[in-house]
Design a protein that fits this description.
Elements (H helix, E strand, L loop, with lengths): L1 E6 L10 H6 L6 E7 L3 H13 L3 E5 L11 H11 L4 E10 L7 H18 L3 E6 L2 H10 L7 E3 L6 H9 L3 E4 L9 H9 L5 E3 L21 H12 L3 H16 L14
Parallel strand pairs: 1-2, 2-3, 3-4, 4-5, 5-6, 6-7, 7-8
Helix pairs in contact: 6-7, 8-9
The structure holds nickel (II) ion (NI).
Nickel (II) ion binds next to loops.
Length: 266
């Protein structure tokens, strides 16, 4: 049973067939999905999805590039959403200096506030960090993130830094990038990080694994990612699927037993 730790099924890329696609997940071996909010609007649509599908859980949070829209009133609203029972994490939150807006000061301010919120509601965080390795780590260390816990989603930094996050008690989210031909750095990360600290994710509709690179992604491609991790680690694909599912359930505090068919190893 596969645990998808990061997807955006509220994205307009799924407007045409969302219902059909999501309904078919369990029979295709996808037992759990975390739909991740990235703005106030997508937090709202995430919660709607968690109400509709028993196997969909949510994360409520504002992506760094969307933090320009935050103010105290909206932040208070976000805090209420984070307290909903099927919201299992605060995210995705962090820093993104690739798109570099709004200003770094605004991104940092709301990253810190959302880390505090996670601590307050006792839920782990889902971290988005791009081209901001040092600042992300420093803010997390200063805010006592080891007490909060969570996952570094779509991890893109060095193997050494991944191990620093593991020491901080975090998990490393591995997605389609690991299957790309030029993904030497990602393969080093997978080699270095213990399997017990890896989570599977797609970031659908983005970052489809090879051979679907550039196409719309979905959780149905997770077996391709699990297979590549298994190859790098020299273990069975089944072991990767089982371990990542157990780890994600523990991190997100999910006790429900969902059922799912055997994944199609595409
Ligand atoms: Ni995402």
């Amino acid at each position: 049973m596969i645990f998808e730790s990061h997807a955006h099924y509220d994205d307009k890329a799924f407007d045409e067939d969302r219902e059909q696609l999501l309904s078919a997940m369990p029979e295709n071996g996808i037992a759990y999905i975390i739909n991740v909010g990235a703005s106030l609007k997508s937090t709202e649509s995430t919660i709607a999805l968690t109400r509709k599908y028993p196997f969909v859980y949510g994360a409520a949070g504002v992506h760094p590039n969307e933090t320009g829209a935050l103010n105290e009133e909206r932040f208070a609203w976000l805090g209420q959403q984070c307290r909903q029972p099927k919201v299992v994490a605060v995210g995705e939150i962090g820093l993104d200096y690739y798109w570099d807006e709004p200003s770094r000061d605004i991104q940092k301010k709301w990253f810190e506030r959302q880390l505090e919120l996670a601590e307050e509601v006792c839920k782990p965080v889902i971290i988005h960090s791009r081209d901001a390795a040092r600042d992300t780590y420093d803010i997390m260390a200063a805010k006592g993130a080891s007490e909060i816990g969570g996952v570094i989603h779509c991890y893109s930094y060095s193997a050494d830094m991944a191990l620093d996050y593991v020491k901080m008690g975090f998990y490393i989210g591995i997605g389609g990038v690991v299957t790309f031909k030029n993904a030497r750095k990602m393969r080093e990360v997978v080699e270095a990080v213990p399997l017990e600290r890896i989570l599977l994710e797609t970031d659908s509709p983005y970052l489809a694994p090879a051979p679907y690179r550039g196409k719309r992604n979905s959780s149905l491609y997770l077996p391709l990612i699990a297979r590549e991790i298994a190859r790098i680690k020299g273990v069975d694909c089944e072991q990767v699927v089982r371990q990542t599912c157990a780890s994600a359930k523990r991190l997100f505090g999910i006790k429900d037993e969902q059922t799912a068919g055997t994944p199609a190893f595409v």
